[in-house]
Specification:
CATH topology of the largest domain: 2-enoyl-CoA Hydratase, Chain A, domain 1
Structural class: alpha/beta
Oligomer: single chain
Number of strands: 12
Distance between the termini: 81 Å
Order of helices and strands: EHHEEEHEHEEHEHEEHHHEHEHHHHHHH
CATH architecture of the largest domain: Alpha-Beta Complex
Length: about 400
Amino acid sequence: MTPTLTDHRPAPDSAAPRSPASLPGRPLAGTIWACESGVVEEIAHRCEQTDLLANKAAAAPARQTVSQTESIARIDITGPLVKRESWWSRWAGMAIATDIADAVKSAAADPAVRAIILVIDSPGGEVGGIDALARAVADASRVKPTIAFGDDLLASAAYWIASQTRRIYANPVAQVGSIGTYAVVADWSGFFKAAGVKVHVIRAGQFKGAGVAGTPVEKEQLAEFQRTVDSVNAQFMRGVAQGRRLPMARVKELADGRVHIAADAVQLGLIDEVASLESVIARLKAGTVGRSGSSMEIGASVMELQSAIPAADARFLIEARREGWTLENAVAEFARREAARPASLAELQSALPAGVPIEFLSACRTSGRTTAQAVAAWAKREEAELASNRARRERDADRYWRRRHGLG
């Protein structure tokens, strides 16, 4: 079962369909993407408008992506990401995940390299090879200072990679985020039917051959495609949570596919600072960023957690240590959980006015209301009662006035 990626432009006016191999986006078929929206469709459009075979010989050689100055290894990641190099990836100007992973491993093992900086200008790409590259970056970060710089675009799979470094910087206009994965499945069955062509898939296995051009895409097949995308996306989010030392609940809030301008990305915890590339490299050379023991590398200790969150139980402390949360993230996560926790009877009695009926308290406990929800519900009830009393007084006053004046 492999999703078929293609663009969404109308099928061409033609008396007969083209062969499946020449349908829009076929060079991208069978791929799940962690990529900024529109990039895959643009590549597919370029493929459709270009004679790829004629351009095969003219494909540019792979770009040099690694340089070293004053014991600082700079690794550039530019363009959409694919797993392996080919004449097609060179023609499309793509970054190669396996090559970048090799460069990171080499720099991490090189005693002449004191620190590593990934300079990234990428919308993300196919998910193949990204997990291995992210793990290579995480391994390098444990060995020596490794940081990332978002040079205009740090999105999706590219952000996954950057999240594994000790710190992330970006220039002021950089777009950051786009956490999420997707695949595009085109249903060409109507187009084929109009041309008088019927496609038969001889299969062994319910979902084998799902999405073959010319066959209807059924609801069950779409559900299976969605299951696969969700599974890959879960790996993406786990990687970000571990790399950025963020609770998974927070990552899920951020994983809505949006990109954010750098200053907003700082506030959201996606990156650490807005700066110029030159200043970051200068500080890296001076040894003032990405040092061992930085807050982005090592989570809070148990003593720090107990001091900052005295109400936290052992289970929460163990989770915070296991996930490597920073003190700031642990405090924020504890506050979030406390705000969502059902209130105890004692907490309700303390937060609500004296004399609140026991029936109301019991209803709050039964429904699992938080303290804030209970207070809001009581205020709403009080407001409704006041409004009812006000209306009753107005009716009584109206009846009195009418009787006084002989109006009934």
